[in-house]
Amino acid sequence: MAQIVLDSVDKVFPGGVTAVDNLSLGINDGEFMVFVGPSGCGKSTALRMIAGLEDISRGAITIGERVVNDLPPKDRDIAMVFQNYALYPHMTVEQNLAFGLQLRKMPKSEIKRRVGEAAKMLGLEQYLGRKPAALSGGQRQRVAMGRAIVREPQAFLMDEPLSNLDAKLRVSMRASLAQLHERLGVTTVYVTHDQIEAMTLGDRVAVLREGKLQQVDTPQNLFDSPVNLFVAGFIGSPAMNFVEAELVREDGPAVAFAGQKLPVPEESITAKEGLDSYFGRRVIVGIRPSDFEDGTLADSGWARMSVTADVTEELGSEINVIFMIDAPPVEHKDTSDLAHDVADEEEAAIPLAGNQSIWTARVNARSRVRPGERINLAVDTRNLHFFDTDSGLAIGHPEAAQVAAAATAEA
Amino acid sequence: MIYKILNALIVVFVGVVGVPVLYFALNALVNRIPGRLRTWLRPYVFVGPALAMVGVFLVYPAVHTVILSFRDRFGQEWVGFSNYVDVATDASMREVVFNNILWIVFVPTLTVAIGLAVAVLADRLKTTAERVVKSVIFLPMAISFVGASTIWLFVYAYRPSGEQIGLLNAVWTLFGGEQQAWTQLSAGNLNDFLLMVIMIWLQAGFAMVLLSAAIKNVPVETLEAARIDGCNEWQIFWQVIVPQVRATILVVLTTVTIFVLKIFDVVYVMTGGNFRTDIVANRFITELLSARNFGAAAVIVVALLMVTVPVMVLNIRRFREEEATR
Fold first, then answer.
1. What is the pLDDT of residues A243-254, one digit of tens each?
2. This prediction's pTM
3. Does A55 touch chain B (CB under 8 A)?
4. Segment among A45-59, A200-214, B202-216, B275-289 with least mean pLDDT
5. pLDDT under 70: residue ranges of chain B
6. Order of strands, edge to edge, in the sheet holding A58-63?
7. CA distance A398 to A379
8. How many helices and strands, by DSSP H and E, does chain B display?
9. pLDDT in tens, A158-184
């Protein structure tokens, strides 16, 4: 087991496309690190550079104590799990598992022990004699895992290993993966575009966009204090609601938008450094769907806003209330990238809402809200997020200041 | 010459236009027949012409040949197995068979080896370079055996006196060798191998095209997985790529083997079977046209047929298996 350090790593493909841009990141010994981001953000390229399948254009990658830039993959002591499993079709499950060990001239008895152990751990014992073609998707996935496990490497590298499985299997494999990591404690780098996978599996999650690291932190911290609009919108489902508002001070601090006015707690103003300088100016306000509640069920201290529910999605344990806000959708590079990604991957048509924004509130299942009815929503204003309209950075976020400084240095 | 070109054009025209017209006409004819007879008859109308062609030009001659092999040299009196005994005990026949075995052993394996090597190496070139290289290697496939042999006559050419025009001699003397009468050498079976080069030159392109397609079907991820598992490039080739294209290798091997079993043109054009290069099919022509021994000629053909058919069956079966797993 080992730590992995990426130091100012660039990847420039022939033709000039920069896939990874100045990526610096430390992955601790035994840590489960997830790279997440929309397609084309460079997360797979970064992983493949750690694996040695792609050259490093600039910077250095260290695994354990060794700089591995010039080492071939086989000498990096890592194992990789591929999206389409990449099993050798002409070998049985047992041969697939043993192949990497035989190449390393390991004694037969040791190979047998390790293969047997891995097969038992993954429930593959009765399939050892079969070829991959005779296995189901989930079984192939487990063989791919087993091939990595038997190697007992310094680190596991996983490139979207669950994305070829159906939804139900994905959830159960996700749990087994977490268990496996708990048991083996091997440093793991895991690439996914699925933010739920990222949140559930990662000790820490690195959010990438266009080859640049946006933020790396624990899932909870990413959720609670995203560094910019992009991370805010990417992490969390349903996604955070945004609106451009004016920060005003009347009876107390408040944000005004689309005929609504939400008071902002004094503590927020003091806690978020620099926010007070935005009084009288426009800011982008973000509210998580989970920071809403049905007014009749919520804490009486919360602020209220009255809206008309357009659609209600009853999920059993909660209800998603979708409603319109009479303000244009926030137009910022960060948010348009997100919309683009959604359109790409799910081909979800973005509903035409004219000059209105679509918001989602998550309320208690006991709410009696019905489509087309007015609902008095309570808002936990302590959790409002504030972003600069130009830079898209979270106001008062400690890392945002660094990002801003780096951006000016670059320009 | 004009006459010949016209002839060729007419043949092409009849083939391309005549065949569809024939089928349309037959189909129209069948449509006039009433009721159940029509449904019963229709498949035969379409399969019929092909069956007739195979029957007239393949089955009938084959049967007739088998009959001839049991008759005397003029094809008149029944002589039982005596033709077979004669051919089997003929000492010169032994050399012919041995030459054929040499061909069968070396040509398919070398063809596959070269085809595989080119396919793998070309795969690593840039797209345009790959296309150019493959086209050049594939080009000989478009040349008839006789045409190719004529080309190689010039490569191997040797004149006892006067100006030399042979390409191989030019290269050979460049490196300090003496002028040689290639394909007429006295050393061992070298002449055979010089002729085999022509066949390999012709067939390597075919092997390369099929193998290249198969190699491109090998998932890149399995190669990357092997690289991480600890393979060097050599091990990746032998332990990951080759096993995954095994089926194609076997199909190419058997197909080339069948070509080689029937090889005739190359030897006939280059040496006429002289200089210890004779092979079975050429020996058949000699028996038939020079010696006018119909019985012996028929025996040779029957023997060749009996060797070819199992390979053919094997090939078709393998091809079907491959299609089934697709």
1. 999 999 888 899
2. 0.80
3. no
4. B275-289
5. 322, 324-326
6. A18-27, A4-12, A58-63, A66-67
7. 25
8. 17, 0
9. 999 998 888 888 999 999 999 999 999
| B68-124 tens-digit pLDDT | 999 888 888 888 888 888 888 888 888 888 998 999 999 999 999 999 999 999 888
Q: Residue B250 is which amino acid?
A: L
Mutate to test the interface with B, among A53, A75, A157 (most CBs of B within 10 A): A53
Put simply, the answer to whether A74 touches B230 (Cβ < 8 Å) is yes
* Chain mean position to CA A194: 6
What's the confidence (pLDDT) of residue A204? 96
Contact present, A278 and A386 (Cβ < 8 Å) = yes
Chain B residues touching residue A104 (CB < 8 angstroms): 230
Measured at the alpha carbon of residue B23, what is the angle toward residues B17 and B27, in degrees to the nearest 5? 145
**Three-class DSSP category at B147:** helix
Residues of B in contact with A74 (CB under 8 A): 227-232
- The secondary structure of B227-275, three-state, reads HHHCCCHHHHHHHHHHHHCHHHHHHHHHHHHHHHHCCCHHHHHHCCCCC
CB contact under 8 A, B221 and A82: yes
Q: Do B229 and A53 touch (CB under 8 A)?
A: no
d(CA B228, CA A77): 8
In DSSP notation, A288-354 reads: -GGGEEETTTS-TTSEEEEEEEEEEEE-SSEEEEEEEESSPPP--HHHHHHHHHHHHHH-PPPPP-T
Q: Tell me if chain B has a CB within 8 Å of the CB of A15.
A: no
Residue of A nearest to B235 (CA): A103
ipTM passes above 0.90: no
Sorting pLDDT into bands at 50, 70 and 90, what band is A399?
confident
Cβ within 8 Å of residue B219, ≥6 positions away: A84, A86
Q: pLDDT tens across B16-31, in order?
A: 998 889 888 888 888 8
Which residue in chain A is spatially nearest to B220 when comparing CA positions? A86
Cβ partners under 8 Å of residue B235, min gap 6: A103, B226
Q: What are phi and psi of A365, to 5 degrees?
A: -65, -20
- CB contact under 8 Å between A73 and B221, yes or no, is no
What tokens does A258 get? 């689309």
How far apart (Å, rounded) are the C-alpha atoms in residues A233 and A337?
Answer: 10
Give the whole-angstrom CA distance, residue A358 versus residue A320.
12
CA distance A227 to A394: 5
Of A86, A89, A151, the CB nearest to B224: A86
Predicted pLDDT at A347: 42
Q: Does residue A349 surpass a pLDDT of 60?
A: no
Distances, alpha carbon A329 to alpha carbons A237, A279, A325, A350, B115, in Å = 18, 22, 9, 12, 61
| A247's tokens | 């920060």
Per-residue pLDDT at B324: 67
Q: What is the CA radius of gyration of chain B?
A: 25
Q: Which of residues 97-136 of A touch B (CB under 8 A)?
A: 99-100, 103-104, 133
**Inter-chain residue contact B221 with A84, CB threshold 8 Å:** yes
